[in-house]
TrEMBL record:
SMART domains cross-referenced by the UniProt entry: HTH_LUXR
Source organism: Microvirga splendida
Protein name: Autoinducer binding domain-containing protein
Lineage of origin: Bacteria, Pseudomonadati, Pseudomonadota, Alphaproteobacteria, Hyphomicrobiales
CDD domains linked to this entry: LuxR_C_like (cd06170)
Keyword annotations: DNA-binding, Transcription, Transcription regulation
C-alpha cells in the first residue's frame, strides 16, 4: 500500500529500516525486510546485483532479488544485461536515477526497447536505481520497480540511504569477513557523518558544529577515503553499519 507523504515520516521509516536490518541474520531476511519497507513507496520488485564484465554471466553476480521468476529466467536466458539501458547508465553515473532517465533509441537499439517493453509485462514499468561504485573498481546496483511509485524530492534521499544500507548489509551477510578500514574515523569525521545521516547539508553542519562549510566537506571527504566510499551516502551507510556512528 502506497503511503501518503503527508502522513508518512520518510526519515523515521529509513532509520527504523536501517536499525532493523542489523538484527537480521540471513540474506533471505534482508529480502523480506526490503520488500516490506519498499512496498510503502510503491515498489513491488527489486534486485541487488553486480554489473558483470563481458565474460561473466548475469546469474553469477546477483546478490539478492525479488523478481518475478518468469522475468528473471527470460532476462538471464536472453542475456538482457548486455542491452539493458538501466545497467548501461549505472556504469557511467554514481547518482541515483529514475528508469525513465536512462536513454536509449528505439529505432537504433531494438534490444534495449525489447528489455523495457518485456519488463512492463511483469508490472515493472517504472523504477528507481542506485548505482554503486567502489574505489577499487567494483560496480553494482540496487534497482527497484513497480507501477505506482512515490518518487519525490522528499522520498528519494530516504530511498537512497535505505538502498545503500541494504546493499552493505547484504554484502556483509554474504561475505562476513571482518571490515578493515584504512584508519579509524576522527571525532569530527564521525560528527559530520552523523549530521549527514540526519539530512543536514554541509552548511547546516558547519553552523551546528561552529566550523566552516569547507571544513565539513573536508572531514566528509576524509571519512569517505577511510571507508572506501565513493560518496557521502555510502560513507554514512558504512559508518552506521559498522557502528562508527549512531542514529
Amino acid at each position: 500500500m502506497l503511503v501518503s507523504g503527508r502522513n508518512f515520516d520518510y526519515a523515521t521509516e529509513a532509520f527504523d529500516f536501517i536499525d532493523g536490518l542489523d538484527q537480521l541474520a540471513t540474506p533471505e531476511d534482508v529480502v523480506d525486510a526490503v520488500a516490506k519497507s519498499f512496498m510503502l513507496f510503491g515498489f513491488e520488485n527489486f534486485i541487488i546485483t553486480g554489473l558483470p564484465n563481458p565474460k561473466e554471466r548475469f546469474e553469477h553476480v546477483v546478490l539478492l532479488k525479488k523478481w518475478p521468476k518468469g522475468w528473471y529466467d527470460i532476462y538471464a536466458k536472453e542475456d538482457y544485461v548486455r542491452s539493458d539501458p538501466i545497467i548501461r547508465l549505472c556504469r557511467t553515473t554514481a547518482q541515483p536515477f529514475e528508469w525513465s532517465e536512462a536513454p536509449y533509441n528505439r529505432d537504433t537499439e531494438p534490444k534495449a526497447a525489447e528489455v523495457m517493453d518485456r519488463a512492463t509485462d511483469f508490472r515493472m514499468s517504472k523504477g528507481f536505481c542506485l548505482p554503486i561504485h567502489g574505489i577499487n573498481g567494483y560496480e553494482a546496483c540496487f534497482s527497484m520497480s513497480g507501477m505506482d511509485l512515490d518518487l519525490s524530492p522528499r522520498t528519494k534521499p530516504a530511498l537512497h540511504l535505505m538502498a545503500m544500507y541494504a546493499f552493505e548489509r547484504a554484502r556483509q551477510l554474504l561475505d562476513p569477513s571482518p571490515y578493515r578500514s584504512s584508519g579509524l574515523l576522527t571525532p569530527r569525521e564521525r560528527e559530520t557523518l552523523m549530521w549527514a545521516a540526519a539530512g543536514k547539508s554541509a552548511a547546516d553542519t558547519g553552523d551546528i558544529l561552529g566550523i566552516t562549510e569547507r571544513t565539513v566537506t573536508a572531514h566528509i571527504a576524509s571519512a569517505c577515503q577511510k571507508l572506501d566510499a565513493v560518496n557521502k551516502t555510502q560513507a554514512v551507510a558504512r559508518a552506521l553499519q559498522y557502528r562508527l556512528i549512531g542514529l
